[in-house]
Design brief:
The complex is a heterodimer of chains A (about 450) and B (about 300).
Chain A lengths: L3 H27 L9 E7 L3 E3 L2 E3 L3 E8 L3 H28 L9 H15 L6 H62 L5 H15 L4 E6 L2 E6 L4 E4 L2 E2 L3 E4 L5 E5 L2 E2 L7 H37 L25 H4 L22 H8 L11 H41 L3 H33 L9
Antiparallel strand pairs in A: 1-4, 2-3, 5-6, 6-7, 7-8, 9-10, 10-11
Helix pairs in contact in A: 1-10, 2-5, 2-6, 2-9, 3-4, 3-9, 4-5, 4-6, 6-8, 6-9
Chain B lengths: L7 H24 L10 H55 L6 H22 L2 E2 L2 E2 L11 E3 L9 E3 L7 E5 L2 E4 L4 H5 L6 H14 L3 H51 L3 H24 L11
Antiparallel strand pairs in B: 1-2, 3-4, 5-6
The chains are: A alpha+beta (about 450), B mainly alpha (about 300).
């Protein structure tokens, strides 16, 4: 049956729930700026009714649970887009650094090639002039130095990338260990039927950070979550994490291993994939183009010089201008050296007489002779400029659109999980009113009980 | 629908974007170039490399032309001195052919002719910047040597060679810049030195002066015809110079089209980017600094 005590009990349940609702609001307000925090709402329900005779009476309010509001699908999309965006931004940063090597059209290798052939042109009206001959060697030296500098800068950037790979792998390991340990705590709470809301937020946040480094997919299982890369390498399984290792491979750069399996080339997202792409594809491709250009120029010019006669007495067939490039051209740009030091050794003459400029035509013709790639030297260089510029510009456009998508996804996440102070304030007013009302009920019931207990006596007046 | 209660990241991204645009526009205005990095316009950046190559070659050709022109004009003026000397020899020969002259008068003329002969040898050994211009490619030694026993009887032997040097004065445009001395002064049938030597002997012996005068005249005409080569070559360098100057202009225009900055448009972009920045900053500054909590008492 229902009575005053029942009313008191209902009012008390309301007081208790209101307090917990206010605590939830307070926690939301406190975490309004916490990264990855999902707002919580108190899920309340009416108490089970009691039926007396033909009437049923309510039994107050019950707090079912404190629920964190988040959209699991959106979180997955956010992870995926973070992987994409992080890879693109990492590549872009490296490409922007790379392209500074090729930024000027009036200095650097391209301009050096033009200047070198121009110095041969200037020698042709006065082929025995030693000053003009010296300027040919000076131009050749400048060309060689700029090839060396550019090739070395590419190599340095590659070594730095290699360091970054090792550091990123160690970050991956730190994050996976943290994720696994939190997974254990989440399981414990869930087993005890408690709300793991904020722990899940923390874990989600760590997975987001991990997505910045490597392509991982989250697979929910009965025993917590499993994190695996897109090639199937498991990084976390429930409360256990599996560390990746690095080891220098036969190509001289760090490879990433999961156990004994080399997964270097299977990573498709996150900054690691970006680092590896620049380290293993972009830079080697640029280096190889530079090597082919340096080797082709050196070989063709040496061959052309060998067809004419120098200024020695008696004149002999010309020797090498540049050191013979390594076989296959590998490393040719970094090691390009002018070995000719005496300007009189330039073989300008086609017949051994000092005034002949016949062989200068052969040397100059190297400018128009296609190299192994079918392009003339200056065209080869201009292709390199185009390649690096185009790759940078495309990556930049991709990164821009990925940034936009990520921003939109984050807006969506905010619209579901973000804490709105206005909303919390309005909730607070509501909970406050409910609490005040319940408190009134308590005080009213109290007065009624007093009246009932002191029935017929006017004790207060005595 | 519930909106994202924290628009700050979006606003900051917008601010970042407009600041990036400001930076880009300022950079373009400061450098005067729209292609400061290959990624600004990859195709234009690649073109600019080719363009710089063309510009370098173009100015290189112009520089070669001025070097060649010095050489050509030295040869040309030397040959006109040779023609003048030959005219002088001709009048002396005609004078010596006058039957009324005494032996001593003719001897005096012969001495004058010998003077002209030495003058001719010295003219044929003219140098330009230390190089003998009529030596073919053996430019380091005087090509004409006085030699009484020269087999052709000219009294001069040629130690140069018959090389003709070519210099590129344009893309694929090669100009021959010399005529070998043997072709100018010792051409079979029109040998200048043989004609002079024969004239001296004819005057000295008073025999066949008329025929000797005729062959000097023929040699002189031949030489004048050869001189045309240098005039032509000079003309070619001049017309190529004006072509190259026009091309240079075109190259720099192309350079400007590819990598130059449209100042008006860029200044406009800059102003716009700055306005955007201001507006975004204002939006961030004014963005509801109040929320419902401020009204709870």
């Amino acid at each position: 049956m229902s009575g005053l005590f029942a009313s008191l009990s209902i009012a008390l349940s309301s007081l208790s729930v209101s307090q917990q609702e206010m605590a939830t609001t307070s926690n939301n307000v406190a975490n309004a700026n916490t990264t990855g925090y999902s707002r919580e709402v108190a899920d309340v329900a009416a108490g089970d009714p009691i039926t007396v005779g033909s009437n049923s009476y309510g039994t107050g309010v019950v707090l079912q649970k404190i629920e964190s509001l988040r959209d699991p699908i959106l979180e997955i999309q956010l992870n995926q887009e973070t992987q994409q965006q992080s890879q693109l931004n990492t590549s872009l940063g490296q490409l922007q650094q790379l392209q500074t090597q090729f930024a000027s059209s009036t200095s650097g290798i391209g301009a050096d090639i033009s200047s070198f052939f121009n110095s041969l042109q200037q020698l042709s009206p006065d082929p025995s002039n030693l000053e003009l001959r010296q300027s040919v060697l000076t131009a050749a030296g400048k060309l060689a130095t700029d090839f060396n500098t550019t090739a070395n800068n590419l190599q340095t950037q590659r070594s730095n990338l290699d360091q970054n790979v090792v550091q990123s792998v160690s970050q991956v390991n730190t994050l996976t260990a943290q994720i696994a340990s939190i997974d254990q705590q989440i399981s414990n709470l869930q087993n005890a039927n408690q709300n793991p809301g904020t722990l899940v937020d923390t874990q989600t946040n760590l997975i987001r950070q991990l997505s910045g480094l490597v392509d991982v997919a989250v697979i929910p299982t009965d025993h917590g979550i499993t994190l695996a890369t897109s090639n199937g390498t498991t990084l976390v399984s429930g409360s256990q994490s599996f560390a990746l290792t690095t080891q220098v491979g036969s190509d001289g750069v760090q490879h990433i291993f999961s156990g004994s399996q080399d997964i270097t080339n299977t990573l498709t997202g996150g900054s690691l994939a970006g680092l590896i792409q620049i380290r293993d594809q972009e830079i080697p491709s640029l280096s190889s183009s530079l090597d082919q250009l340096a080797a082709g120029l050196a070989t063709n010019l040496n061959n052309a010089n060998a067809q004419g006669f120098d200024l020695e007495v008696p004149p002999v067939l010309g020797g090498n201008i540049f050191a013979t490039p390594p076989a296959g051209g590998v490393g040719a740009a970094a090691t390009l050296t002018v070995t000719m030091t005496d300007p009189s050794l330039i073989a300008a003459s086609s017949d051994g007489t000092v005034g002949s400029n016949g062989n200068l035509a052969n040397l100059s013709a190297v400018a128009d002779t296609p190299l192994a790639n079918g392009q003339t030297p200056i065209d080869s260089y201009s292709s390199i400029v185009f390649q690096v510029g185009n790759d940078t510009s495309n990556t930049s456009a991709d990164a821009d659109s990925s940034n936009l998508i990520l921003q939109q996804l984050q807006d969506q996440r905010g619209s579901i999980s973000g804490v709105s102070l206005d909303e919390e304030a309005s909730n607070l007013i509501q909970y406050q009113n409910a609490y005040q009302a319940a408190a009134h009920v308590v005080s009213t019931v109290n007065l009624l009980l007093l009246d009932a207990v002191n029935l017929g006596m006017d004790a207060a007046e005595e | 629908m519930r909106v994202n209660p924290n628009p700050m990241p979006d606003l900051l991204a917008a601010l970042n974007q407009s600041q990036l645009e400001t930076q880009q526009a300022s950079m373009e205005i400061a450098t005067g170039r729209s292609v400061n990095e290959p990624s600004d316009n990859p195709a234009a950046a690649a073109q600019l490399v080719e363009n710089n190559d063309e510009a370098t070659f173009n100015s290189g050709y112009l520089q070669s032309i001025s070097a060649v022109q010095g050489q050509l004009s030295t040869a040309d003026s030397t040959l006109s001195s040779v023609t003048t000397a030959l005219q002088q020899a001709l009048s002396l020969g005609v004078e010596a052919g006058d039957g009324t002259l005494s032996d001593s008068d003719r001897a005096a003329i012969a001495v004058q002719l010998q003077g002209i002969q030495s003058q001719l040898v010295s003219l044929a050994n003219t140098t330009y910047q230390g190089n003998y211009v009529f030596a073919g490619a053996k430019t380091n030694a005087a090509p004409f040597v006085v030699d009484a026993t020269a087999p052709d009887g000219s009294g001069v032997s040629y130690v140069g060679n018959t090389d003709v040097n070519e210099v590129s004065i344009g893309s694929g445009y090669k100009l021959a810049v010399n005529v070998p001395g043997s072709q100018l002064f010792l051409a079979a049938g029109n040998s200048v030195f043989l004609a002079i030597n024969n004239l001296i002997q004819a005057v000295q012996t008073n025999t066949g002066i008329g025929a000797a005068v005729n062959s000097v005249s023929a040699a002189s005409s031949y030489l004048s015809a050869q001189t045309v080569f240098y005039g032509n070559a000079t003309d070619q360098t001049q017309s190529e110079t004006s072509y190259l100057n026009a091309a240079q202009l075109q190259i720099s225009q192309q350079q400007n089209t590819l990598g130059g900055v449209d100042m008006a448009a860029t200044a406009n972009n800059l102003a716009q980017a700055q306005t955007d920045t201001q507006a975004t900053l204002a939006a961030i500054g004014k963005m509801s600094q109040n929320n419902l909590f401020d009204y709870l008492t």
